[in-house]
Structures are given as C-alpha cells and as structure tokens.
Design goal:
alpha/beta, 14 helices, 13 strands
Length: about 400
C-alpha cells in the first residue's frame, strides 16, 4: 500500500458521524441538515432535456480527454462574458469531472516530491482536498491562517519567506469555503509577485463564484491577472464547476483554464488517469455554460434565503452576511466548551443542537488544522444554506431558540 495514505486525516463528515454516535434526536421535529454543501435547488429543465437528447448517440464511443471543441468553446465564451478575458479553447481550457477531482489531480501533476522540502500552501480553514492532494503528492502542507478581524481574509504575510522558497503549489479559494471571503485585486497582486519571485503555481478554486450578495460579481483569478497585465496567465490555473452554478452536483462537470504551459501536462496526466468526460455530459455542459438566466434565478433564491436567515442569527451568534458562497461561518458562545468534557465548543454545539433540535451543522474545527498552537475553525460552525428558504428559516429559528435556552 502507498504509505502516504496513512497521512490522511478522517474526512470532516466521517468525524461528524463519530461525533453524533449515540445521539438520539427529537422525533417531534423533522431533521434539517445544514451540514453538507450540496445544492438542493431544482436542476434546470433545459439542462435535463439536453442531457436526455445526447444519450442516443453520446455513449457509443470513447470520449477524448481534451473534450469536444463545442464544450471548450462554450467555456471560453463564458469566461469572456463573465471576466472579460480571452483564452484559446484548444490550449488553455480543459474540461474536467468536477473541480474536486481536478484540484486533486492537478496537484499530482505539479508537485515534484524529489525536491527537498516540497511544500503546498493553502488557507486554514480549507477545503479538505487541498491537504489530501498535497500529502499524496509527496509534499508538506503549510496552513496559512485567516484573520477574523478582516472578514476572514487569508493572512499571507504570516507565511515565512523560507516556506515560500520551497513552495511548489498554492491553493486559493475565492469565494472561500467555509468563510465566503472574496480576494480583492491587491491580494491577487501580492500572490502574483510571490509566484514570480519563487516560481510556484497558483491553483485558484472558484466553484462558488456565481453565488454572491452584492451588485459586483466576485473577482476571478484570470480577471485579476488580466487587469494586472499578465495576459499569458503565467503559473495560474483556475478551476470552476457547474455544481453550484447550475445545481447539478451529480453531473460532475467543470473545467480548468489558464497557463497553457500547465494545461498541456495536465492533459497528459489525465489521459493516463482516465479523466475523460462522458459525451452526453459534455453536450449538456456546453448548453449550461451558454445560458445565464437560470444562474440569475439561482442567485436570487440564495439572496432571498440569506436575507431572511442572517437577521435571525446575527443577534445571537458571531455571524454576518458573507461576500459570497452559500455558507454562514458563525462563531458560537464559548460557554459551550464546558458542556461536554473532551469536546470543543463547536463540537458540543453541533452535538447538542442535533440532539435537542434535530438540526445538523458542521463544527468549524473539522475544516481546519491545529497550526502554530491554534485551530482557526475552533469555536465556529459552518451552515450550508442549500435547502429551500422555508426549511433554512425553520433551521435558523431552531438554532436561535437553542442558543437562547443555553445563554
């Protein structure tokens, strides 16, 4: 067996299952889960119809790993509309089976474990794939903390120069999971300067880019590079997906785009790895990237939901409307740390909330790591507002009652 597998920590939802062992929720309240970031809004009818039409002739041949030109062109058209950037569909865009698979595989392409001290830097808290990809690629993770006083922006200045010097890959996530923070142009400029100085690659995870609450859409990595005159997108690859944008997590469809010098070896890796996308999924995906009205409606639903839920929780928890994404990243009262010996405040909060109100949330400490004597997720919970508005409002009302009764 690959000895690096032993380095992997239990996935957050496995830890949650263990935390809830022995808990018997109230039976008079229907269960509501805010634990998993799985979109629940309806899949657009046009997308389902396009997928069905493609089944007749879309399964009889092996698909090309590079994807059909029509899909790559639709991705390029979306990038032009959304960010104002122009990329070559043949050399700078590659379809992938969702951003999760691609983020992991890209790290295996980039990391050179034979170089002493190979390091991958990413935010803390973070999406767990970053850590697993680094460890299985033979690199050491380095956890860059976020700053609660600055809307959970990542404190890149806390990364020492000697760490940057051995960094091969930097994962960024904007809008962030779980914090919802969006990186401004000044932050991108700092990271591009560091990449130029030290030679590392930036993998920009942007799967939440279309769920936002202000008039201005979140800045993307390619857009930032273009604004700063980096039109070759050197050492930058962005990752996006239809899962959240179009409510199709089961379609497993996304694409990567950016520096052609890294897209080419990534295509080679994926050719051997078997990462080709089904032709039927490709045709449906091409249609989805070209259609925006369903995205606008999806965003309207999330805005309505957050506008109703956030005011219910703000007076009782340390929480505010995020820049973007569909998560609320809330601080819980520190008094919960004393409720159950051996559990942190966020763990005790989640466990008692399930038992007493049948609502599931994810402890923030499960999305972060102890680094420099601190786990930046400790004392916080992540709530995924993915169900319909009425269910999310009911969950928020239960959480508010729960906190009031434990004040």
């Amino acid at each position: 067996m690959n000895p690096r597998l032993r380095l992997l920590q239990p996935y957050p939802f496995e830890r949650l299952r263990q935390l809830f062992a022995g808990v018997t929720p109230r039976t008079d309240l229907r269960p509501i889960s805010l634990g998993i970031g799985e979109p629940k809004h309806a899949t657009p009818e046009f997308l389902k119809a396009e997928l069905a039409r493609s089944l007749d002739d879309g399964l009889a041949a092996y698909p090309a790993t590079a994807g059909e030109p029509v899909l790559r062109q639709s991705c390029a058209a979306w990038l032009q509309r959304r960010y104002g950037v122009t990329l070559d569909p043949a050399t700078q865009i590659l379809p992938v089976n969702g951003s999760r698979e691609a983020l992991f595989a890209f790290a295996q392409t980039v990391i050179d474990p034979t170089r002493p001290g190979a390091t991958v830097v990413f935010p803390n808290p973070f999406y767990q794939i970053y850590e697993g990809a680094a460890l299985l690629g033979g690199a050491q993770p380095w956890y860059a903390p976020s700053d609660p006083a600055k809307n959970f922006a990542v404190d890149w200045d806390s990364v020492p120069d000697d760490v940057w010097a051995r960094t091969q890959l930097l994962f960024v996530c904007s809008p962030g999971n779980p914090t919802g923070a969006v990186m401004p142009l000044s932050e991108w400029e700092k990271l591009f300067e560091l990449s130029d100085r030290h030679g590392f690659v930036i993998a920009s995870d942007e799967c939440y880019s279309e769920i936002y609450f202000r008039d201005e859409a979140p800045l993307g990595g390619l857009e930032a590079a273009f604004r700063l005159g980096r039109t070759d997108f050197r050492r930058l690859v962005m990752f996006t997906s239809l899962s959240k944008r179009s409510n199709v997590p089961g379609l497993r469809s996304g694409f990567v785009a950016g520096d052609a010098g890294f897209i080419k070896p990534f295509l080679l890796y994926r050719t051997y790895h078997g990462g080709a996308m089904s032709p039927a999924v490709q045709h449906a995906s091409a249609a989805a990237w070209l259609e925006e009205s369903h995205v606008t409606e999806n965003r309207r639903l999330y805005r309505e939901k957050f506008a109703r839920v956030t005011p219910l929780l703000e007076p009782l928890l340390d929480v505010r409307l995020p820049d973007a994404s569909f998560y609320l990243w809330a601080g819980v009262p520190t008094s919960f740390a004393a409720h159950t010996p051996g559990l942190s405040a966020d763990e005790a909060f989640a466990r008692e909330l399930l038992a007493q109100y049948n609502v599931t949330v994810l402890p923030g400490s499960y999305l972060a790591r102890e680094a420099r004597s601190h786990n930046p997720g400790a004392g916080r919970i992540r709530m995924a507002l993915v169900a319909d508005t009425a269910e999310c409002v009911e969950a928020a009302s239960r959480i508010a009652d729960f906190v009031r009764h434990h004040a």
